[in-house]
Amino acid sequence: MIQTIELTKKYGDFTALDKLNLSIKEGEIFGLLGANGAGKSTAINMLLGFLNPDSGKVQINDIDATKNAKDARKIIGYIPENVNLYPYLSGVENLDYFCRLAGLKYSKTELQDFLASCGLQSEANDQKVSAYSKGMRQKVGIAIAYAKKAKVYLLDEPASGLDPLASKELSILLKKLASEGATILMASHDIFRVREVCNRIGILKSGILVKELYAKDVSANELETLYLKFMQN
Amino acid sequence: MFQIIKNEWRFLVRSRLLIAISIAFVSILLLSIFLGNYQTQKQEQTYQKATEHLRQQWVSIDAMNPHSAAHYGTYVFKPANLLSNLDEGVNSVTGNVLRVEGHVQNEIVHSEASQMQAVSRFGKLKSALLLQYIVPLLLIFLAFNTISSEKQSGRLKLLVLQGAKPLEIILSKTLSVWLYGVLLLIFVVVVYGILNFQNLTAEILTRTGLFFLSYALYYFIISGLTVFLSARWQNATLALTSMLGIWILWTIFLPNILMSSAEKWYPLPSRNEFQSAMTEDRSKGLDGHNPSDERGIALEEKVLKEYGVDSLSQLPINFDGMRMQADEEYGNSVWDKHYGSNRNILHQQKKSFQLGGIINPFIALQNTSMGFMASDNLHHQDFLLQVENYRRVFIKMLNDKQTFGGSKTGNWGWKIDNAFFKSVPDFEHRPTQISVVLSNYIMDVSLLILWSIVVIALIFFGTKKIKIV
User: Fold this and answer.
1) Interface test with B, best of A83, A86, A89 (most B CBs within 10 A)
2) Are A157 and A51 contained in the same domain?
3) What interface predicted TM-score (ipTM) does this complex get?
């Protein structure tokens, strides 16, 4: 579960995030829509504990993440827009390395299984990551969180720059994770992908959550119209 | 921490460029060790040949007046030093040959630098040259983007999210880079050990161990500082530029500025001033070759009184030899005064230069490197002192033979046979033991340790402010 209560972040006179209240349940995928600079990444960085809020609180499952970021991070998986892995390591080696940092030791077969679960073709397992496409790196990134047994997934513009097939595969993967009980927050400005993947959607404008709705209640076109209306006002 | 170090080393091992650079550098290091060894062996052979030749000349003196033999004199050669394979120190500029004779203390001459322009301009290719100048540069190039690249790529977030602490990451990266330098150092020391296996002694091993320790500390300072800057600055270029600036300041400008300052604060007399002062002081003393010299006459009266005789011809000894020795002893006291003063000035210069290590650890490294490899000025001065002590024993033996060998005063035609010349001992160099001179380098080693602690403190306290995003 992800919960933010009156979460606020200011940079001098500029308010990057203004009293954000969110509540995302287990098994739910929440899409945070917003233009560049709307405060999506600020919100994610505060959820990760990399930025301290000026006021408000973050709750990740039972953990008060504003006070105990280290414990919260143990159950969070984070997939940035560009998953920059170590190019001189293979997919398996990257996964192994990040798992070991988290204190997890898996056999090669187990690591391969994690990668397969996240949709990486088995032929790519032992290839150097420098030869991977962006989509393949995303899959390894998700596998890192998956192998860590993350309960919460935070994705910052994950579909940006992905080809349609890779984007579709990502959607399937996220739905699979949610069906397994993961809580997912996906920040994006890709209206159609968010509409397709998420259960609930929030529109963030200038740090304020201006609208919250269920994806099933709107069509992609209606969502676009709504989004543009908020952006233009 | 181990995982991060292991990962850094996987990068080093898998980077073709780094492997190529490492192979090239190790080849140059190998060349420097072999060349150093070859030069020392060659120098040792030349030394042996020259020493034997001169000894042969000396023991072949058929019959000669002892004081004439004192003027004939001999030569002492500075022996090759096995340790200077690694660091030549001041050896190539200080000279190798010293003429030993009566009445005068000669200067050591025939330095390699005076005979080879390349040596005087660029120094000799010794491992220390590469270990002091090039290895730190390699470490800087390895470390300058270790943290900034993690930050810029966003991997730092992932690493922290996986449980790695920023301090742990920075320390691990520092240790990885430092290990690279230490491995090069181990390589040099091991190859050196293998090449000289038969000549290794506890003294050489101790000195090499201390040499290793100083370099290991200096490499830690360089690695830690570079990784720290990489973590603190927002981009890698700034970290690289800062470290290159520090490298230039530490290795090129500060040593020259500090040495010049030390020479200004404690100036040595010029060669002419030194010689003039010596000549002036000696002119006030006894002239062994001048029977009408006032001090000579006073000594003559004293000796006649002691023996209870009225004239030199009644003496059972040869007063000429006694006067020569008195002349010698006066000359020795003059030399002790002036040379001692020079030694004091050199000591003060060294002390103030050593203090430069407070702002520049490279100075401390240079001092320990030369010192532990027995090739600094302190060891050179010790050699000169040993030669002077030998000269005094050598000349006294000849003068005593002139005095008490059975000749009479004024009998300059008297000669002693070959057996005596054979009994005169040859110069035997006793290498300075590290236990005797170690106290001279405690300040340098302490400063290197202090610098390492400062770098650790910088990493500990400075990284708390590092922003992950």
Assistant:
1) A86
2) yes
3) 0.90
